[in-house]
Amino acid sequence: MLTVLIVSCAGSKQRVTKKHLDKQLNENIYVNMFNGILIFDPISGDTLYQKNARKYFTPASNTKIFTLYAGLKYLPEKMPALEYIHWQDTLYFSGMADPSQLHPQFNDSTVIKFLQQQNSPVLVPRSSMDEPWAPGWAWEDYDSYYSPDRHSLPLYGNVAKIWYSDSLRVIPKVFKDDLVPTTGREKRLQDKNTFFYPLGSADTLVIPYKTSDSLTLQLLEKAVGKKIGTAANFPVADKKKLFSIPTDSIYREMMIESDNFLAEQLLLAASLTVGDTLNSDVLRKKLLEEELAELRDPPRWVDGSGLSRYNLFTPESMVRVLHRMYREVPRERLLSWFPAGGVSGTLEDWFGTDNAPYIYAKTGSLGNNFCLSGYLITKSGKVLIFSYMNNHFKTPSSEVKTAMQAVLAYIRDTY
């Protein structure tokens, strides 16, 4: 009798929830846009609410949830930085796509210190099936801070930091002769590392530089302080690996700050666990066909960051991957990777309360699109998993977020 009563009460609550949210999700703001939502209880296995949960959406940076899962499955606890062989007093080495070397956030110098200890370092450029940009990236973003090139041995985050202090300054310093004061809006020539700084500006600019193996060699020699040779191939011998910082620190920065560069490099690094060539496409296919073969709505997944508008994911697929991580990763560690509503990263100004955060979720923003997927902690202490995706709106994104807050706060207070 008690079981019947409990089931009846649960069913009644879900009916009330459906009626309430159906009304909220039919307000005027939603008339000329497309949205989908799935709210899931990982303990009971119940779907508490769903609308268009199996429809495909442009996910924007929600894509990074899949990139995070790829890193968890294929990368070790510390980032592989170099692959190398000592051969006849010479060190042959190749990059392994580690994004942390001399990165302004991590400022790791594991590779630099290692090479400084070598008598005759020789760089073996690594072959790649990935272009510096992924399919579907906007070409006009080439000089925007959020679109650095992908590369096998990135340095300084593949960006130049430029500011004015008695004279124009730049890091890396190799670009000091490539700075041009300007009155225009262009930040860099499209096909050349010539950078422009606005006259009279007090801002610090962060501008992607155009990568190449020759520039990587130049940057390395400057940082290491010695000549570095090049070779087309490694000698025939067993390779060793040099590791740098914990991957958790990269996951956290990627997710909380929505760092596109870190996301792209993580996929490249993970691809080297399944082959010697950088090939993120092979890595994505392997993850979807093996680890995530149960997905009912296989995504179209073309990059690590979500910059591409070619990506297509469903709310259900997002929730399934979030559920897998919830089962496989301790709660404190898992939530530490996500922006906290009203507290950190891309959610610092949204989804907050006067008490502890109740939303730990990844944002996804592109023009006319805003998505949010992650974990919701209810007033009763339940952890729910959700994906809430909004595409093709022309209203200000702040209005969409306000409407989303009302929906998620209702779920928080109801369960």
TrEMBL record:
Kindly give the InterPro entries that the UniProt entry links to this protein: Beta-lactam/transpept-like, Peptidase_S13
Q: Which UniProt keywords apply?
A: Carboxypeptidase, Hydrolase, Protease
Give the range the annotation lists for the signal sequence.
none
Query: Transmembrane region positions?
Result: none
Top-level taxon in the UniProt lineage: Bacteria
In terms of SUPFAM superfamilies, this protein maps to: beta-lactamase/transpeptidase-like
> Per UniProt, what is one Pfam family of this protein?
Peptidase_S13
* Record's protein name: D-alanyl-D-alanine carboxypeptidase/D-alanyl-D-alanine-endopeptidase (Penicillin-binding protein 4)
Which species? Zeaxanthinibacter enoshimensis
